[in-house]
Specification:
elongated; transmembrane; Anthrone_oxy; mainly alpha; 5 helices; transmembrane helix; 0% strand; DUF1772-domain-containing protein; single chain
């Protein structure tokens, strides 16, 4: 019984590994911004919260952009070397499109909220953390905390794109091989049992 039916070239194994690990790391990093970082940021007063959010944004972007590009290049490379009619090819192409699609998604849906928060950061740069009325008169949906909450929700939508892309990379890897080959196994009966 063969452990694997085919031997994958080392370069493809490396590219596939990079595509899977970088997309899954990107998913975890991106989702943790909304599930871990933002809830902590939301506990701070508005002037501090917006500064902390800006740090989350800056650090997240420094990790996210390169990982999106790296994972798309890796999955595109793997797809290029696959049969275009195969399911793994289609899954890798889907991943190659989905993973970097977070960039136009960000520009279309998240950047307007980013710009509002960056303006708030600049406006509140010298505000006292003890000033409870620092955002008095600001429309309810336009406060620092409301904008950060909106950003976290949009970020989760971005994580869904990454998650679907990462899932495609895993399914493509699992789909391309049979783990065990059964062509040489057979059942015999009666006198045939002994050879």
């Amino acid at each position: 019984m063969a452990a694997l039916n085919q031997q994958t070239p080392t370069g493809l194994v490396i590219a596939q590994t990079v595509g899977i690990t970088s997309s899954l790391f990107l998913l975890g990093a991106n989702a943790s911004l909304s599930f871990v970082a933002v809830p902590a940021v939301m506990q701070a007063p508005a002037p501090l919260a917006v500064k902390q959010w800006f740090t989350v944004l800056t650090n997240g972007g420094a990790i996210g952009r390169p990982l999106a590009i790296l994972s798309a290049i890796a999955t595109g490379y793997v797809a290029y070397h696959q049969d275009p009619s195969s399911a793994p090819f289609k899954l890798n192409i889907a991943a190659t499109i989905l993973l970097p699609s977070i960039v136009p998604f960000t520009f279309a849906f998240i950047v307007p909220t980013n710009n509002k928060l960056i303006a708030k950061k600049d406006d509140l740069a010298s505000a006292s953390l003890d000033d409870k009325a620092v955002e008095a008169g600001v429309a309810q949906g336009e406060t620092v905390h409301a904008l950060i909450d909106r950003w976290a929700t949009l970020n989760l939508a971005r994580a869904v794109l990454i998650g679907v892309g990462a899932l495609c990379t895993v399914l493509a890897a699992l789909n391309k091989r049979d783990v065990f080959g059964f062509k040489d196994i057979g059942l015999t009966s009666g006198a045939n049992r002994m050879g």
